[in-house]
Give the backbone structure.
Amino acid sequence: MTTAALLEKRSLPRFGGFTVGMIGLELRRMMRNKRTVIFTLVMPAVLFLLFGTNASNRTERVGGGNVTGYILVSMAAYGAMLATTSGGAMVSIERAAGWSRQLRLTPLKPVAYIAVKLVIAMIIGLVSVVAAFAVGSVSGAELPAHAWILCGLLAWVCSLVFAAFGLFMGYLLPSENVMQILGPVLGVLSFAGGLFAPVDTFGHTFATIAKFTPVYGVGEIARYPLVHDGTLWAAVLNVVVWTTLFSLGAMWRFRRDTARV
Amino acid sequence: MTLTATPGTAQPGTADLAVDLDGVVKRFGAVTAVDGINLRIRPGEIVALLGPNGAGKTTTVDMLLGLAQPTEGTVRVYGRKPHDAVALGLVSAVMQTGGLLKDYTVEETVRLTAVLFGKPPSVVGEALERAGIADIGKRLVGKCSGGQQQRLRFAMALLPDPELLILDEPTTGMDVGGRHDFWQAIRRDAQGGRTVIFATHYLEEADAYADRVVFVRRGQIVADGTASEVKALASGRTVRATLPGAVASQLESIAGVDTAEVRGDTVYLHGRDTDPIARYLLTETPARDLEITSRNLEEAFLTLTADSPEASK
């Protein structure tokens, strides 16, 4: 058989190999990992139940809801961040296992691979927000109807910044247990960004520093439909700048990773 | 035959080659891993790349798959750049290690590969069957033995129905049973006329499964022939003896001696049948401390390169 005849029956997949089938299989694998499920779905809900649902929080009002609702939104944002970070950081494990190299023996384009990772990160981010809100709705969290939807949506969309962060770290850190490093890092960032306690409760200096950390913007934006307070433009700028920085970092490492030696 | 056509255009006589390596050199910094390899493989050949560890086999395989770029020279697979041939599924590979995710099941791994190549789900069961792992489809990859994982890699490699299958040290770390099963699966598959290139440092494997053996040593091809020619090279034994004042040319005239070496007072006589050589040494010369050893692969390589003096090891 001549080469021309061989090639007739062969073609490249569309969209560089980006398929719903791959997303489905990858999601199933991610959900099989108990640590991922616990960190992204169970832990934010448990933290909410521990710190958000005492009697004073239930009765104290914030905006159109109660403090329990305020804490729920923060915890949902935290869960979404954990979820999207671990979604992005999957690339670290895959590189360590030689899977990225294996994928180079398929028609899958590197850009399509990244797109799949981002989609998966955002899907589990959404699941995490929905799970936290479901727990909150039956545990005394009160929010105005529009805030349930808008706060959830904003917490989810803004967690994109951490999908980029996860990808960047996934390419930067060669560790197989990258989330063991990133989990505590996110904890510290969340605290610094006012997700666990309002920034106003910090001293003046720390409150100023907090506004420049990557979690601050996500929390402020996510809670805005409830509290209608704070400087929204500064929070948006925070999210945009950090998303850009993390994306640039991820692209820099990604280019280096896929360069053929 | 001289080829003057520019790379990229169809070259008469080479367009239908499965593999065409032309003056390929690969350097990593100061280290030259591949040092000028020319190799042409026709469709349907089963070729062993045989050589000791560090000979440049894996680097050559990486270049065939587009995982590495040659420093000099050109690599063509079915007339195309390696990466394009890989993307089209013309060539696939079973790599030595890695390349699997342990939290996928065997079946899911193959299904994902099918999705990536745009193949219908029906091909998954068939590939599992042909690789002999249909019974462990639901098992997590992390719970599979080395041999099972290797057959999974084989199933993945079969999915695009490649014209050329490349195996890089495919049986490293397998026990005897696993090795046997793996080669059974490959052999059944190759009957369909697929081109197969496998890198190995096991002479027996090259002998049993290849119809052409390419010796690689220090990044160069030092011999290229049929399996039986290789077997002849590596068969035979060496008689080592202490014999002061010996001259190589005189030793080579002894009946049964193919080659002779003199290193100080020690002589090394290589031959197919060493008994008459030993008898002659003991009865007709003052030789002592005789030792007879089988020639191993490394010595076969040394024999092959005996006429090109090596600077140093």
Remarks:
- Chain A touches chain B through 34 residues (CB under 8 Å).
